[in-house]
Amino acid sequence: MLSDHLGRNYLAALRIVRDARKASSAPPPWVCFNTHTRCMCCEAPFTWNSTSQSEAQANRDQHNCRSCGWLVCDGCSEKRKPLPEYGINTPVRVCDKCFYKA
């Protein structure tokens, strides 16, 4: 059964599932792409730090915060932290607002 899987990868996947099932709450829904043209944290256009202003570039430059679900730019989502309340124990992308929240 495990001949095509490394044992540690299989165990890591089981731990992720276990942690998700133990979570005290579910993560919030994500804000859909193309519903905002500006970052929900800093209000800057998503392409503020890009060399291209195309729609495709704007789509590449927007990200969802894993903690609050907001749609944020690259600059406002550079930080990563674990979210044990959602069963996520590895660092994931979060917005600056959630990263600095006490």
Automatic annotation (TrEMBL):
Keyword Zinc-finger: yes
InterPro entries in the record: Znf_FYVE, Znf_FYVE-rel, Znf_FYVE_PHD, Znf_RING/FYVE/PHD
Domain (FYVE-type) ranges: 33-102
Keywords (A to Z) from UniProt: Metal-binding, Zinc, Zinc-finger
A GO term, aspect molecular function: ubiquitin binding
BP-aspect Gene Ontology terms: protein targeting to vacuole; protein transport to vacuole involved in ubiquitin-dependent protein catabolic process via the multivesicular body sorting pathway
SUPFAM superfamilies (UniProt xref): FYVE/PHD zinc finger
Gene3D superfamilies for this protein: Zinc/RING finger domain, C3HC4 (zinc finger)
One Pfam family of this chain: FYVE
First and last residue of the signal peptide: none
CC terms in the record's Gene Ontology section: ESCRT-0 complex
Keyword Zinc-finger tagged: yes
Protein name (Swiss-Prot/TrEMBL): FYVE-type domain-containing protein
Organism listed in the record: Saprolegnia parasitica (strain CBS 223.65)
